[in-house]
Amino acid sequence: MKKVISTLLIALLLVSAFALTGCSNSENSTDEEQLSVCVVVSSAFGDKSFNDSAKEGADKLAEDYGVKVTTIECNEENYKQHMMDAAEVSDIVVPVGWQFYEIGEVAQDYPDTKFIWVDNPVDGIEDLPNVLCILYAQNEGSFLAGYIAAKMSESGVVGAVGGEDVDTINDFLVGYEQGAKYANPDIEVVTNYANDYEDPAKGKECALALHDQGADVIFQVAGNTGNGVFAAAAEEDFYVIGVDQDQKITASEYDEQIICSMMKEVGTSIYDTIATLIDEGTFDGARIWTADMSSGYISIAYGDENSVQQVSEELKAEVEQISSAIVSGEIEVETARQ
């Protein structure tokens, strides 16, 4: 009898030990499998547009999938080193901005890390299976912004403030001018560059200079600098168009001045790419993906039910028709991309 009891006690102890070991292994497995994503921006967050959109997409991944999200603000320096620092501790690195052009070298040094470069292509992408470049058809959405600007203008002059004279920014401006001319062949389009993405004072100065030339609707394509364009509009009483996010919401203090925003769904494109990796186990690297109007990543936004609606329903309907014509290829939008 004692032998039977002893045997049962040993069996129970073994079962308990296996159970405890199983719990420990499960917990460790969860920690090991938690995907880590680092969003690296060339400047800083808080622009209420481009950079913040990227972070918004990553934060949604954390909420929906439990992804570990970290961020790095480069503050306009040490871009390569910051990418390397991120790659050391992250499964996926998301550099945001053209300044990360050394991504090819970093990706080769960190072959087990995946990279999603936002808004730019890299040379030799076909030899970089761990890199996906996402471009955006901002020229298409900017065509719609230009159309709205020309239709809303009373002076016959519309403007745009760009962050700097580079292909990506000029892609906005080319589409914007084409759309404005489509609405009114006689419209005058004036533009300038702030040569900075983090200086609202320069944005304000640029906007006031365009307003002095008669522009009564101004499109901002300058990140945080663009918030100065909004401030100028509030001061001098003219209309503005936001960019990247729905800035009637993200910059709601300027709701009365912002008539619409050209949506460039940076956050959503990042979210969708990483969600596909999690759900399906696939990462479609070694290529350039252009997120465009047909796939829903480019559009025009007018705020929400609490926002002031300066654009008439009739004009919104025209914009929808033009959007369909762009998607179908009936309207071919010019581009500044090389």
Kindly summarize this structure in a few lines:
This protein has 338 residues and is α/β, with parallel strands linked by helices. It has eleven helices and twelve strands. It has helices at 2-33, 50-65, 79-89, 103-109, 138-152, 167-183, 200-212, 226-236, 247-250, 266-280, 313-328, and strands spanning 36-41, 68-73, 92-96, 114-118, 131-136, 157-162, 188-193, 217-221, 239-244, 258-264, 287-291, 298-301.
Beta-strand segment tally: 12
Question: Beta-strand percentage?
Answer: 15-25%
Physical arrangement of strands within the biggest beta sheet: 2-1-3-4-5-11
CATH class of the largest domain: Alpha Beta
Secondary-structure-based class equals alpha/beta
Poorly predicted ranges: 1-32
Q: Report the CATH architecture of the largest domain.
A: 3-Layer(aba) Sandwich
The average pLDDT score comes to: 91
Radius of gyration: 25 Å
According to CATH, what is the topology of the largest domain? Rossmann fold
Ends distance: 88 Å
Order of helices and strands: HEHEHEHEEHEHEHEHEHEHEEH
Number of helices: 11
Structure description:
46% of the residues lie in helices and 20% in strands. The protein is built from eleven helices and twelve strands. Strand 8, helix 8 and strand 9 form a beta-alpha-beta unit. Helix 2 runs parallel beside helix 10 and helix 7 packs across helix 8. The longest helix is centred in the first third of the chain and has 32 residues. It is globular, with a radius of gyration of 25 Å.
